[in-house]
Amino acid sequence: MLGPLLVVGLAVAAFVGFNIGGSSTGVAFGPAVGSDVVSKLGAAALMAAFALLGGWTVGRNVVATMGGDIVPAELFTLGASVGVLFFVGLALLVSNLFGVPASTSMTAVGAIAGLGVAAGNIDWGVMGRIVSWWLVAPIIAFWVCAVVGRYLYPYLDVWFRIDQSEGPLLEYRRAASIPYPVPAANTNRRELVSSVLVVVIGCYMAFSAGASNVANAVAPLVGSEAITTDQGILLAGGAIALGAFTIARRTLDTVGNDLTDLPLLAALIVEVVSASLITFLSYLGIPASLAVSATMCIVGLGWGRATRVVKVRNAASAAMRGGKTDASARQGGEASTPMSVNALTAESDEVQKIGEEDPAELSTGDLFDPSATGRVVVLWILTPSISAVASFLLFEFVPIYG
Fold first, then answer.
1. Neighbour-count burial of 384, counting CB atoms closer than 10 A to its CB (0-12 exposed, 13-18 middle, 19+ buried)
2. 127-131, 160-164, 354-358: which has the highest mean pLDDT?
C-alpha cells in the first residue's frame, strides 16, 4: 500500500522527469523541428521512446552509482530520498530563473554528497572519480569541437550543406489500403539523406538524455528500495514522455525557430559530440551534464571556426613578439580574435585555407562572450555547491537518513 510519504516521493520524481522531458526534447529535436523534417508531435514520440531506451539500457549504470555507490543505499530512507529529490527540483527552478542550463545531474550528486557528509558515510573515491570527469568532460567537449571548427567545419559545410527544396519532404502513396512514404517530387537524394541524418542524430541525443537523466529523477527512491530499478526507469520514462508531449512545445519553438544564430550543421555537430561524450560517461556510471557538454561544444566550435583567420605559427610568433597577428593588424585589433556566431553561419562553396579567410567575415559579434561564459560557469559550480550545503544542513539538523 502506498504511504503518504511515498506518494510525495513519486510525485517529486515525476515532477523532475517531467521537467527533464520538457527541456531535453528541445535540445534533441529542435534542429529537426526547426528545419520542418519532423513535427512537434513526432519529436515528442521519438523523445519518449529513445529516452526510455537510454534509461533502460545504459542509464541503469548511473542509477546504480547514484543509488548506492556515492553513499550506502541504507542511508536512503524514504524521507531522505524525498529531501534529495527536492534539491534536484530546486536546481530546475534556479536554472529557469537565471536562464542558464544548470545540471540536474551535478545538483543531484551534490545533494547526495551532502547527505553522506552529514551521515559521516560517503565514498570519497567515487566522488573524486565523478568530480574529475566533471572537470575533464567540458574540456574534451570544447577541444573536440574546436578542432572540428578550425580544421573540418568549412569542408563539412560544403560537403553536407542541407538545402531545402520547395514543398514537403515526403509524399504518401498507398499499397492496397496501407500508406507508405516516398520522396516528394522536389526532394533530391542529398536533401533526403541529410534530413534522415537530422532525425537519427536527434534520436541519439534523446537516448543520451535518457541514459544520463533517468537517475536524477529516481535514483534515491531506488536506493531506498521504495521502488525497483525497473519501476524507477519506467516512472522516469513516463514523466519524460509527458514533458515531451506538453511543455516541450515551447522549447522546441525556441531551439528550432528562435535560435537562428546556430546553423543546422553546427547544431548537429554539437549534438553528436555532446551525446557521444555523455553516453560514454553514462556507460561508466558517471552522472554528468548534457547541457554543460553541449554548451562547451558550441563555444569550442565557434572559437575554432573563428581562429581560422590565423595560422598557428603566426599566432605563436606574435605571442613571442608580444605583437599582433597579420589578421589582427588588418582589423586594427589585438592578437586575440573575437568569437562570432557569424563564424558558423558563413557559407561558401570554396574553402579558404587557414590564415587566408577574411577576419571581417569570421569575427563580427560575440559568440565567445567572456562575461556571459563566466556567468554560466559560476552557476554550474554554484548550483551543486548550494545543493550540497543545503542538503548537509538539512540532514545534519534533521537526521532522517538510515
1. buried
2. 127-131
Taking residues 48-55, report their average pLDDT: 97
Helical segments of 99-188, H only: 104-119, 124-147, 153-159
In a domain, 402, yes or no: no
Residue 37: its H or E element: none
**Count of structural domains, the chain:** 1
Collect contacts of 129-137 with beta carbons under 8 A, ≥24 apart. Answer: 129/286, 130/65, 130/70, 130/286, 130/287, 133/281, 133/284, 133/286, 133/288, 134/106, 134/288, 134/289, 137/277, 137/278, 137/281, 137/288, 137/292, 137/293
Angle at CA of residue 252, ends 249 and 255, nearest 5°: 150
Give me the pLDDT at residue 164, please. Answer: 63
Cβ-in-10-Å burial (0-12, 13-18, 19+) of 56 comes to: middle
Report the SS3 class of residue 61. Answer: helix
In contact, 297 and 145? CB cutoff 8 Å? yes
**For residue 216, how many other CB atoms are within 10 A of its CB?**
31
524525498: which residue's cell?
Answer: 82
Residue 101 domain-assigned? yes
Query: Each residue of 166-214: pLDDT tens digit?
Result: 666 677 778 777 877 777 767 777 777 878 888 999 999 999 999 999 9
Provide the 8-state DSSP code for 133.
H
Please give the pLDDT value at position 198: 87
Answer yes or no: is 331 within a domain: yes
In a domain, 368, yes or no: yes
Full residue range of the structural domain in which residue 183 is found? 4-397
- pLDDT classification of 308: cutoffs 50, 70, 90: confident
Cα 310 from Cα 337, distance rounded (Å):
9
And the C-alpha cell for 83? 529531501
Decide: helix, strand or coil at residue 181: strand
Position 341 scores a pLDDT of 41
Mean pLDDT of the chain: 80
Cα–Cα distance list, 318 to 98, 187, 310, 337 (Å): 39, 49, 10, 13
Rounded CA-CA distance 64/257 in Å is 38
- How many beta carbons lie within 10 A of that of residue 349, not counting itself? 7
Instruction: Give the C-alpha separation, 15 to 25, whole Å.
Output: 16
